[in-house]
Amino acid sequence: MTGTVVRLRRRAGSGGAGGAVGLAAAGMSLIAACYGLARFAYGLFVPTFRTEFHLDAATAGAVAAGSYAGYCVAIVVATVATSRWGARPVAVAAGACATVGTAVIAAAPGTVVLALGVVLAGSSTGLASPPMAEAVARSAPPRLEPRLQTVVNAGTGLGVLVSGPVALLFAGSWRWAWAAFSVLALAITMWVWLTMPRPGGPGRDGDRGVAPVSGIRVPRAGWRLFAAAFSMGLASAATWTFGRDLVTAAGNSALTGVTMWIALGAAGLLGAFAGDLTTRVGPARCWTIGMLLLGVVTATLGLAASSAVVAIVAGAAFGALYIALTGLLLLWGTRVFPVRPVVGVGAAFLLLALGQAAGAPVLGAVADAVTLPGAFLVAAAAAGLGAGIRPRHRP
């Protein structure tokens, strides 16, 4: 019965391979702007922000947690709004949010305005993921959907990759770097507005015959998905929030920290192959191996960040693993909720962000109370625990 529903849904929403590929390109760019620039670039600038605004590790972590909290609210709003109005207006709103949020950060005169900008910019990611997953699920031919979903998701790596050189280009003025992020986000928002199918147009079913969000029942497999996503959020919060800070505090140059960030983003593009890998190897095995490796990489970075080579290699490995695992969560969510994929993706990414929102301030407090490497070991332990929470069936 489920297979029949999925086939009918795809037939109703198929817009052809060419249109789906173009949609995926715009979607990947939107994810790059929202995740790589508006949200995760905060971690790249934490050393600068701590100096500029006199922040301790706990406060820096609390500001990051605000970004994750904004994401949590936005992803609920996006899930409901996409179901009611379609993917296009929500995706455009995500780009607009990233544009304004990064502009506010660029102009921030103090910690409060900085925090507001970080929350607004981080909220853009919550608005971006559900509509893009829904649009691809309804536009792509069945044989291409897993690949295109993970290609769009790999936009995070692209954004992180771009943010590093921009930070180097404007090394003497971090405000100009964030202003550049805002301009890039605006251009991508315009592209998405021109590319995304309109509600009821080609590539969408106009929401006819689709269950509303309020009518969705959480299956038993959904709770396993939610627990896995939360554990990954806890495990990844250390590197995203304090990764560059750890590397520079360990005695490396600022260039080494930025190079690690660029390597993280470049390797993250490999996450585009997560869909193909999951199809061949199986989701349960991919999840367990990926989470265990995430724990090893996080612990290695915490213990050996003084070595520039180790820091860069560990950063690259983290980027590839993170994007691949989030791609697996995305596919897992669309299969657990086949009638309404936006709900599965929204719920999985909500729990991922809740884990990061809980982890960032807690790990910051651990860093202040013990050491920053100690906080990374706590995050590594969370990854090890999460490795045992795996999908029972193929997503």
Automatic annotation (TrEMBL):
<feature type="transmembrane region" description="Helical">
    <location>
        <begin position="311"/>
        <end position="331"/>
    </location>
</feature>
<feature type="transmembrane region" description="Helical">
    <location>
        <begin position="12"/>
        <end position="38"/>
    </location>
</feature>
<dbReference type="InterPro" id="IPR050189">
    <property type="entry name" value="MFS_Efflux_Transporters"/>
</dbReference>
<feature type="transmembrane region" description="Helical">
    <location>
        <begin position="58"/>
        <end position="78"/>
    </location>
</feature>
<dbReference type="Pfam" id="PF07690">
    <property type="entry name" value="MFS_1"/>
</dbReference>
<keyword id="KW-1133">Transmembrane helix</keyword>
<keyword id="KW-1003">Cell membrane</keyword>
<feature type="transmembrane region" description="Helical">
    <location>
        <begin position="254"/>
        <end position="274"/>
    </location>
</feature>
<dbReference type="InterPro" id="IPR011701">
    <property type="entry name" value="MFS"/>
</dbReference>
<dbReference type="InterPro" id="IPR020846">
    <property type="entry name" value="MFS_dom"/>
</dbReference>
<feature type="transmembrane region" description="Helical">
    <location>
        <begin position="223"/>
        <end position="242"/>
    </location>
</feature>
<feature type="transmembrane region" description="Helical">
    <location>
        <begin position="176"/>
        <end position="194"/>
    </location>
</feature>
<keyword id="KW-0472">Membrane</keyword>
<feature type="transmembrane region" description="Helical">
    <location>
        <begin position="369"/>
        <end position="389"/>
    </location>
</feature>
<feature type="transmembrane region" description="Helical">
    <location>
        <begin position="343"/>
        <end position="363"/>
    </location>
</feature>
<keyword id="KW-0812">Transmembrane</keyword>
<dbReference type="InterPro" id="IPR036259">
    <property type="entry name" value="MFS_trans_sf"/>
</dbReference>
<feature type="domain" description="Major facilitator superfamily (MFS) profile">
    <location>
        <begin position="20"/>
        <end position="395"/>
    </location>
</feature>
<feature type="transmembrane region" description="Helical">
    <location>
        <begin position="286"/>
        <end position="305"/>
    </location>
</feature>
<protein>
    <submittedName>
        <fullName>MFS family arabinose efflux permease</fullName>
    </submittedName>
</protein>
